[in-house]
Design brief:
The protein has ten helices and 19 strands. By secondary structure, it is of the alpha+beta class. Strands 12, 13, 14, 15, 16, 17, 18 and 19 form an eight-stranded antiparallel sheet that branches. A four-stranded antiparallel sheet has the order 2-3-4-9, with no helix packed on it. Strands 5-6-7-8 form a four-stranded antiparallel sheet, with no helix packed on it. The structure holds FE2/S2 (inorganic) cluster (FES) and fe (ii) ion. FE2/S2 (inorganic) cluster (FES) binds next to loops.
């Protein structure tokens, strides 16, 4: 369990909060590039870390991400006209470019220089992996875009979807590193496996590695080592490989980006069926929205007969919906002061401690992990090592991507 104060420190992401400020040191996924595909296309609303924004692509193809509120009298720029290299507010015609400069102020007399004094908050954007990423932190601290492997592979080698989780980001991310739930929530009576016996969390220069191990029949320990890259990325050691990003929309909503990718060849139809049929981490969303069809309002379409039959532990279809549903069921913000944590929660306890430590160190001016783009050349892995071998040492050996070409753009 966490004290109220510790919990607050981890979950709040607004401007000025400890975690919010830490998250603003990293690149954050904002929208799919295809949502603002063409120059001068309609702008789209984006909410990140509690801030209401609009994304647009200007006449020259540059992407802008501006405060949604016009700095004149706060009308929404979502209704704006995207024309001639800027987004024009339709209330009184003020116009802003992708850098946040006010480039036209037709409501004011022509001889005033007022427009040169007005700016709108604008965040820098880059496009990687079919996604527009933004940096919302201090300009002088902006890091290079990390060598996040899935974001650098060509389009046929990746499949990226997203869905909203109506709960705090940390519930999502904790679920991602909580290996003991796999044997229950996702497989349960269908495929009984015992929960892990060993747990390790190793801090690294990109974030940390969570290990869970089981005794193998040959006397060795079979480890699953999961990469967490700061502040909210998971790399999944499946085939095809996978990834999640739990990007906070605000304190009570999270955009869960879900990825399948292959670092060296295009994804093939045979291996994608599970994903395309929404049986894996990807959800089937209400058309035109990021909300899953199976959601809180319909109890995630739980099928009690299926649950009773033993063919499904939950009666909820699809791994992504199972995670989303059970994490939302904890409330928009879980009250971690009333939990009862056991041995199987060791990873969760260690992850929280490390995150708290990272937040505290960042608050006192230390450079947080993950800002060196090359430190992200990592993959999650499964491996077996003798019982007396040190997991901590193996991690560095195994999760670093040796084939640097694969990680490069
Ligand atoms: S509120 Fe935007 S121009 Fe007046
Ligand atoms: Fe899960």
């Amino acid at each position: 369990m966490l004290t109220r104060e510790e919990n607050e420190k981890l979950i709040r992401v607004g401007k000025g909060t400890p975690m919010g400020e830490l998250m603003r040191r990293y690149w954050i996924p904002a929208v799919f590039s295809k949502e603002i595909a063409a120059p001068d296309c309609p702008p789209v609303r984006v909410k990140l870390l509690g801030e209401r924004l609009v994304a647009f692509r200007d006449t020259q193809g540059r992407v802008g991400l501006l405060d949604e509120r016009c700095p004149h009298r706060t009308a929404s720029l979502f209704f704006g006209r995207n024309e001639e290299c800027g987004l024009r507010c339709v209330y009184h015609g003020w116009k802003f470019d992708v850098e946040g400069n006010c480039v036209d102020m037709p409501s004011e007399p022509g001889d005033t220089n007022f427009k040169h004094k007005v700016r709108i908050a604008a965040y820098p954007c880059v496009e990687r992996g079919g996604v527009v990423w933004t940096y919302m932190g201090p300009a002088e601290l902006k890091p290079e875009f990390p060598e996040l492997e899935w974001a650098h592979v060509p389009e046929p080698q990746r499949y990226v979807t997203r869905h909203i989780q109506e709960c705090n980001w940390l519930q999502g991310m904790e679920g991602g590193f909580d290996t003991s739930h796999l044997a229950f929530l996702h497989t349960g009576t269908v495929d009984p496996v015992s929960p892990p016996q060993y747990y390790e969390v190793v801090p690294t220069d990109f974030g940390f590695v969570c290990g869970s191990g089981r005794d193998a029949p040959d006397g060795q320990i079979a480890w699953s080592a999961n990469v967490m890259a700061m502040p909210f990325h998971k790399i999944i050691s499946t085939a095809p490989m996978g990834a999640h990003v739990w990007a906070p929309i605000d304190d009570e909503n999270t955009m869960n980006w879900s990825v399948d990718f292959n670092p060296t060849r295009p994804l093939e139809a045979g291996e994608m069926q599970k994903s395309w049929n929404h049986n894996y981490i990807h959800t089937e969303n209400i058309p035109g929205s990021d909300r899953a069809k199976a959601n809180r309002d319909n109890d995630y379409l739980i099928d009690r007969a299926l649950q009773a039959s033993g063919k499904s532990y939950t009666g909820i279809r699809g791994l992504g919906i199972q995670d989303c549903g059970i994490q939302e069921s904890m409330g928009p913000i879980a009250d971690r002061s009333i939990e009862h944590l056991g041995i199987s929660d060791t990873l969760i306890i260690k992850v929280r401690k490390l995150l708290l430590q990272t937040v505290r160190e960042a608050q006192s001016g230390a450079t947080p992990p993950g800002l060196n783009p090359r430190s992200w050349r990592v993959r999650s892995a499964r491996f077996k090592i003798p019982e007396d071998a040190d997991f901590m040492h193996m991690v560095d050996e195994i999760v670093r991507v040796k084939d640097k070409a694969a990680a490069a753009e």
